[in-house]
Amino acid sequence: MGKILNIQPVTRIEGHARITVHLDESGNVEDARMNLMSLRGFEKFIEGRPAEEVPRIVNRICGICPWMHHLASNKAVDGCFDVTPTPTGHKLRELLQVMAHINDKILHFFFLAAPDFVLGPDSDYSVRNVIGVVKAAPELATQVVKMRQLGQMMLDRFAGKAIHPIAAVTGGFSKPMREAERVELLKDTQTLLDFSLFALDFAKNNVFSKYLDVISELGVIKTGFLGTVDRADGSFRIYDGKQRLMKADGSYVDFEGVDYLDYLGEHVESWSYGKMPYAKSWNEGFSMDLSEPKGIYRANTLARINVCDQMATPKAQEALEEFRAAFGRPAQATLLYHYARLIELIYACERTIELLNWEGITDTDVRAKVTPQAGRGVGVLEAPRGTLIHDYTTDANGCIESANLIVGTTHNIGPMNMSVKQAATALIKDGVYDQGILNKVEMAVRAYDP
Amino acid sequence: MSDEKIRLNTDWLCDCGGCHVALVDLHEKILQVLDSVEIQHCPVLTDVKDYPPARIGILTGSVRTEHDRHAALVMREKCEIIIAFGTCAVYGGLHGAGLAHSREEIMEHVYRRSPTTKTDTIPDAEVSELAKMVTPIDEVIDVDLYLPGCPPHPHFIFESLASLIEGREPRVTQDSVCGRCKRQMIKGDAREIRNTLDEVPDERFCFLSQGHICLGSATLDRCLAPCPNHGIACTGCAGPTMQILTEPYLDIRTEVSDRMARLTAIDEDIIKTYMEKTAKTQYAYAMATKMIGNKPTFLIKKWIADVEGQINE
């Protein structure tokens, strides 16, 4: 009889998960899985509710990326009611989307992932956390806390509520931006941009160079990628654009989000509440076999960095060029998610500044006239953890008749299982493992920021 | 304050993680808190997998699975003081709307009927079985302190932690959201119920005065009123006021319709009926708690059945 190792809960991630490693009689890995432990069923209980209220309900799907659910949902409701937001309403929504990305990346890289790198993956588990970082590198930690605060306060001040936002509405945005607000946001974003450039330098010197061997081995798998790019020139986009589905060999197809049903399917396993999306359009089915995966693609930072032709802002483009020179396109090493995350942080700051400098941003025409009606709308954007899809149909009263959601994290559930299996198989031999090894298995998951 | 640090465990049950982010969002104050508090089990921040004994235990989320129930029991055993933290822990929260749908209905929808799902499998191995109902944590364990909010504003989080650290009563009021709302209540002339798609309400005046349903007057302030101060009516995410919870014949719809009728030219019964028809929205956050569920006036299953009956007719 073999043995089952449970790592529960998986820690320093943003959801509820357990890793189960099945060892055979000689103590080698037979199988390893990540079990998602939670189901709430939002698709079901938004049925019958007035569609325009849904964006304020579905943000409760995720307390880490509530802005993305709020905005994707608003886009879907716009589609149901066949309304196009005013240009300023559209840009204000994008502004909040990129501002929320700034915060998310600071939270993930420094609060959740950094302890593995600043203190080392084998360091004592009782101090391997952000509090340990505060003790080991107090100046860095204080700076990080301040930056996260600045980002969250910017959202709070302008949009009222940073967690579980309410400010976007069908047809646009609930309030215009005043000039004084614009000036202040601009000043704060400049501070965040400086910090983001520092963060990438810090990580290049202290993390990526130091842990190059870990990066090139831990949890490495070969998959395709899904992200959003500019409709016209294939540049990196996170609020609006077309979807790009790339194969592991770098070839790709582009499609409009509204057609996602033609490209994506979802697979269910009996051992996890999380569904596993896969590339249905590749016509090869679904398999998480490490040597011959089928239908498997990844989403989130590394995927977006891989699928785009270039970054649309200068500093982020510089960083991308350096990244591609070192790791190629598409880059496959799982821990490069962290590197890609910091390139996105720079982009998000630069894009925030661009939007704040857009001439119409303080225009008061923030909201188009809306009439509830029967229809269908598909809202797609990039949540920090991957492409987020909200698909609603409404009845003649404008209430939700049915809904289908593909949440960012779920695209990576199949790949995370594969990375866990790869890491566990490589690290656990003949029944020998310790706390540091089990943490490294968790690190393979942590990179995906689930 | 003694030199010995106060030991703290936190855990999340069925929730979105936002309450734990709100804890992190104490920002610079969290550095201050860390001077006197030692964070032990806290899955989002630390790698402590077991539950060491602690003075304070923070539980977010509601009880949805056997796993959640077990975690709540262990936390109770190991912590001297348990705080039910956030609306899900206190009242069941939004997914308490599971009350209106059975778990079988939800599983069938998610794993079989979704247009993207291509398999015919319902997860039932290595996962913790879903409970029939979503329950607030005090139906499973004794709770010492309640801090609702979705999430609670860091202002209240800091005050609750500071008061526990300093061994004093927390300085919080039982005011409703109206207490912090800058809008003015006036007698308006609205003759029918309006919604956000009909018009942008005047930011100077109370939503109710303008014929818009707003739950602010029936909702406890644990948020500092960001929604009504940014153009959006309150949806009651911190749960009902103490008055509504404690008086058997008061509930959210009686309270709001009574006040709104006095502030407009709309008949109270029309408002009450409207709120019954939209009960899933009006009771979204607190329907799973017995404090609301056991009220003689709360007939949500009937209200939902009435609406669905009309649609099917």
Q: Would you give an account of this structure?
A:
The complex is a heterodimer of chains A (450) and B (313). Chain A is of the alpha+beta class. Chain A has 2 domains: 3-35, no CATH class; 43-450, Cytochrome-c3 Hydrogenase, chain B. Helices cover 41% and strands 16% of the residues of chain A. In chain A, the strands form 5 sheets. A 4-stranded mixed beta sheet of chain A has the order 8-7-6-11, with helices on one face. In chain A, strands 1-2-3 form a 3-stranded antiparallel beta sheet, covered by helices on one side. Chain A starts with a strand and ends with a helix. The model of chain A has no long low-confidence stretch (mean pLDDT 95). Chain B folds into 2 domains: 6-166, NADH:ubiquinone oxidoreductase-like, 20kDa subunit (Rossmann fold, 3-Layer(aba) Sandwich); 177-312, no CATH class. Helices cover 34% and strands 12% of the residues of chain B. Chain B is built from 12 helices and 7 strands. In chain B, the strands form 2 sheets. In chain B, strands 2-1-3-5-7 form a 5-stranded parallel beta sheet, with helices on both faces. A two-stranded antiparallel sheet of chain B has the order 4-6. Chains A and B meet through strand 3, helix 1, helix 3, helix 4 and helix 5 of A and helix 1, helix 2, helix 5 and helix 12 of B.
